[in-house]
What we know:
This protein is mainly alpha-helical. It has helices at residues 2-16, 28-31, 47-56, 61-64, 67-82, 94-112, 115-118, 121-124, 129-259, 275-291, 303-331, 333-371, 381-400, 402-405, 410-428, 435-449, 469-491, 496-509, 511-524, 541-547, 560-577, 595-606, 614-634, 636-656, 662-678, 690-694, and strands spanning 454-456, 459-461, 552-553, 556-557. The strands form 2 sheets. A two-stranded antiparallel ribbon has the order 1-2.
Amino acid sequence: MHSENLRWETLGALKNSPKGKLKYSPDWLEKGEDILAGCVEVSSLSPLSGQILKRLSPRPRLNTCSLTSCVRDTSPGLSEEGSFPVSPRQISSPVSIRAEEDEQKKAEEIKEAPAASVSSPPAMSILSPRATQMAGCILMCEHKHKAKAKAELSLRLEQQERLVATVSSCESEQLKRFEELMELKQRQEYQSMRDMMEKETQESLGRQEKMREEHRHRMKILNLRLREAELERQRQVEGRERHRAINAIQEEVLQLNQLLQPRPSTQTDSALDHTPYITRGNQLCSQVSEVVPASADGQYPSVEDLNVAERALQEMRSLVRNLQDEVTQAVERKRKEQEEEEEEKKRHEELKAQQEEQQKNAARSAKEKARKQGLQTGADDSTLKWYNALQDSAARCAQAFDELSTAKDTQTKKLKMELQKAATTPVSQIANISGAPLKEAFEKIDKLLSGRPVTSAGKTVSTSQHPQGLEFVSYKLAEKFVKQGEEEVASNHSAAFPIAAVASGIWELHPAIGDLILAHLHKKCPYAVPHYPPMERGTSVEDYQKILGYRVDDSKVEGQDSFLKRMSGMIRLYAAIIQMRWPYTGKQGPHPHGLNQGWRWLAQILNMEPLADITATILFDFLEVCGNALMRQYRGQFWKLILLIIEEYFPRIEAVTSTGQMGSVTRLKQFLETSLRTKQIPAHRSELGSAFFKS
Length: 695
């Protein structure tokens, strides 16, 4: 009865304990509810419950265990069992940690309690078998629930870890998205700042460009103003200079006008009339005075005013010189008349002696002509007619531009000089270097003769600027071609071919130039006709020497070597012209003055009596330059002519040549003998081929 009461007390104690208040339901796991949700604090058994359970246990090993070991086996387990958290939120809470610490302290107190007081025999038999069975069931139930709780706790922990990993992964992704968003915002801010800076830079550049443009505009305006100021200052300086010059001219004119007044001390005043000089002097003084007041009110005389004053001064000086000359002539008139009478007598005597000498020479020439079987001493009538026609044509051309050549005004003089430079400069630049400069010189001359503008010495000029410009240019151009032969070809024989090429091309396009070239050539070198001008009555020796082609300066005739050198240059130029053609004209007609003229010249020269030194020289020059072309053109007839020269004409040349003039004769003889022996006359080494014109 007593043990029954104890069992009920034990059950009542268990019921009233915190664990006995737990509610168990088989649907908790299905509903997903927390098993320990109803427990708000850590539940645990009383320290004496372990001893009671050991006493009720039927296993023998429990009887032999001491209270200390029982306490160690059960109490800690129960305390650990009761120390599990009620919910996962309380696993790491401070309350569960404090409960565990309390349970550990209670277990230590149980260990320290005396074993004898617990293991008293009356306590061993407190519970009945029924209570022991109940306690075992309860214990087994607790173990099951403990294992189930551990499994659920492990599952919960795994779910919690997975949840934490999922949350961590989500948070990591969100962090990445956040970082990407921040980077995007930073890039956008950077881009906006860069756009703003670029916009500001463009605006700044625009402002700078606008400022530069304004600066350039201002500089242009300032430069224009500075130029205007400089021009104004220069105009004032020039005006003051002209003013001073006019004042000086006026002063000199007034002084010269005083010299025009008659002087009482002069013995010849009675024979002179000073009135025209005084009248003209007063007119010139008035003319100068009219341009001087133009400098009043800050104005300056113009260039025209200065020119008027200068012309008046020149005329005044001329008046004074003329008056002084007349005075001087009046003083010495008687003495001069006497001297002139004496000189006239001497001239008459000299002329008479010269005419007698010419008559003797003419008679001697006639006798020689009869003795030499009738060879001509001059050109035939047709050749002379052609020669005179060319000279008349050149004279008419010179007369046609007489107004231009004798112009007095500065502008016309300047135009004349520019036209002359434009005509002669390209001819001076002709050389046998390459074909390109030669073509350039030809085109300049062709443009000038065609009336188109050309540039010479940095200035543009055209024959259309003056009505007589074309005649003037044509005359000067032909004269320059002949002068190049006289000077350039005479010194450099290879220059004959490029000059002849340009001359023949111009001749072909502008035939009038060819006639003028022949006229100038015949005038300076009559042997190019050929023509030996006779000495006419009344012609002085000096004038006759000029007709023959000699240069006479101050009654001094040039030396024979210089004369032969010039004649040789012009004959070589003529021989090159008759065989050369300009390759770019495109015309297919005959040469305007071709090899047939060379054959005519050679036949004509062989029909005339040879002259000492000159005939041998010009024959050698002519055959050396164009002998090859004549050989290819006339073949057998040419060799017959060469044989005639050697057998019949060459002895005549030797007969009229003195011992000191045999150089040219020997040179001609060697050339003829070599050519006849080899039956070949080689082309001149300076002859221009097609490759030259392509260079």
